[in-house]
Amino acid sequence: MMEGIPKAWLDELDDRFALVTDPDGRAAVLDEMAYAAHRRCEVSSENLVDMLELSEAARLWALTEHEEAYHIGLFKYESWEGMGSDELGRIIVSRMPGWGC
Fold first, then answer.
1. Element housing 13 (H / E)
2. If residue 71 lies in a helix (H) or strand (E), which one and from where to where?
3. What contacts 51, CB < 8 A, 6 or more positions away?
């Protein structure tokens, strides 16, 4: 299934940190890279379909991992409401629970 898929695209697919921190955004980048490779005739239509399927599978995996990271306390959401800002908030990346001080 990986034969004929560009290495640069596979490298982006393998960037698990980027996938987990922004599942939808990374999937959109992977999709755009796949379509661009197809437009440049670097990949066949069959490979394009495989790449899009892999991108969606990676997005779903990353969403699950993202949810698990929140559940175990690796990420937390901090609202800006108490700070007098109209921004939505931010995600804080914390230490693994029980590791370090």
1. helix 7-13
2. helix 45-72
3. 5, 9, 30, 34, 37, 43
List of E strands, 1-101: 75-78, 90-93
At 1-31, the pLDDT tens digits run 578 999 999 999 999 988 988 899 999 999 9
- pLDDT tens digits, residue range 64-73? 987 777 767 6
Partner residues linked to 76 by β-bridges: 92
Q: Name the token pair of 35.
A: 């379509």
Q: Is 90 helix (H, G, I), strand (E, B) or coil?
A: strand
97 contact partners, CB below 8 Å, separation of at least 6: 72, 73, 74
Other C-beta atoms closer than 10 Å to the C-beta of 76 total: 12
